[in-house]
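Sequence in, structure out. Go.
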Amino acid sequence: MEKFEWKDAIKTNIRMLKLAGLWPPGDDSYKLNLYTLYATISLTLFVIIFNLSLTLNIFTVLDDLKAIASILFASITLTIAVLKSYYLTRNMKLLKELMVTINSDLFQPKSPTQRELVEFTLNPWKKAYKMYNSMTMAAFCAWSVAPLTDGSIANHELPFPAWFPYNYKPSPFYEITFLYQFISMGVTSFINVNIDTLIAALNVYVGAQCQILCDDLRTVDLSQQLRGCIKHHKAILTFAEKSNKFFNWIVFVQFFTSVLSIAMAMFQMTMDVPFTTDFFARVFYVTAITIQIFVYCWFGNEVTLQSGNIPSATFESNWIGKPLEVRKSLVLIILRSQKPIKMSALNLFYLSLDTFMTIMRSSYSYFAILQQLT
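Output:
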């Protein structure tokens, strides 16, 4: 049977991250080469400096609560992208190892049925990627064209109020700065979307491997096949542990800041004129970030559910009449898989639907506090 390419599912993520400077060629991490130079320039110019220009602008509007909320809202989103980029580059070697592992023979589907099972498991992730990406790009485009729709472009206002060490009002400085912000926000948006969905894909991979293992266990016959199942189970646990190690800090930072981002976006919506470009941009943003958190929690929750099926799948195997050694091995698998795999953020909270609801409730609580301050 033709080899299943697990990386094909995330080829768009890889392409976009490579364009942003966050995916070195091949299976290696960063080296002293032209791509590393390109990555350094790209991330510094379009992510770090752009974030600083927005953050520093807060000192010019200290007496305006709405303006402060708007700047903090944008700054948090950009800061998340900076931190995600940092942890991705820091753990790039580990991520590339995971990519090699997932394409190894041990993790390959062993029958057309298992191949269909894997593709069926990947379909929800592909739909979630398209939906999340669409909402993010809609918000990005709405904010980018806001100066055109509200007429502020006549006064040479930027899409994102920022501080620059020069007067950007005169032409052509205004056009250049406008283009710079457009590219920077586009790069930041692509970074957030593709890192988030890449992490979700790792969870999908773990869940899919659990399903393959369950199918193997239900049809296991010979003791040699059973040893292969035990080896596969150990490899899944190792892959899940390394995946969790890779995205620990990313998920923690994302969950912590998402509460504030959603609350401030909803707060600003209450002050926006309904059905304006800014209003719709925030609607798209809140939808995007809700999908973002849901994607993390849903596919993390699926890992727990799929790994929890391993004991029952083992019991469903044709174990009656098998040699004592085989039955002991089956019991060992059942005992080792009694505790399902749970993906977490620094072991402080699990990626689950309960966590998703907690984040949503917390966001609304902060939103209510902000409303009381006005």
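Check: The CA atoms of residues 321 and 374 lie 74 Å apart. The two ends are 64 Å apart (CA to CA).
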